[in-house]
């Protein structure tokens, strides 16, 4: 896949990202949104994800991260939420994700979606949720070893979330998407073609994390882990 545009992906704990990356200034809408979070860990995750989005875009473009102006605009109401983009670099496709204690971001010149989740936040009852998983997916998950089932469920969920961020599916149609064939499969972090997508996944056992990135088309994926320098 070396003859195609690359995709840069990075993930880390919120604290590691905040400890390691420079404190590039947020846009006013970002600061206002961060200030609205009641819980500190949610605020840290939001800020870290937006900082990480600048980092991967800088890796992709060579532009200093402090000059990258991240914006979000709802296509329906025009509000400061919705798919992220960079004001002066419309060619850069960006996606970000934040969960309880970890964040991920991806930047590419092709449409991209990324999601990261803690697998221990997936209750066993979710396996029977017909509004989330296709019937064949539920069967495949039920066949998994009980010890590895949470990881498989989280991989499947992040795969679907990445599709949502690509605009390929909607939340209320998730159960129509059948990814049962991928339940027992883990895509390599460097990416591999899966139909019309380049798919890459990673798993971090100490933090009980899994992540998925999907890129429309063929693209080599560079995955970076942001580790705290304060350890």
Can you tell me the CATH topology? Ribosomal Protein L22, Chain A
Calculate Rg over CA atoms: 17 Å
Summed up, the helix count is 5
The succession of helices and strands, N to C, reads EHHHEEEEEHHEEEE
Fourth CATH level, the homologous superfamily: 4'-phosphopantetheinyl transferase domain
Instruction: Say how many strands there are.
Output: 10
Question: CATH top level?
Answer: Alpha Beta
Strand content: 15-25%
Roughly how many Å apart are the termini?
A: 36 Å
Describe the secondary-structure layout.
Elements: E1 7-13, H1 14-20, H2 28-36, H3 40-61, E2 70-72, E3 84-86, E4 93-98, E5 102-108, E6 112-118, H4 135-142, H5 149-165, E7 192-194, E8 197-204, E9 209-216, E10 221-225
Parallel strand pairs: 1-10
Antiparallel strand pairs: 1-5, 2-3, 4-5, 6-9, 7-8, 8-9
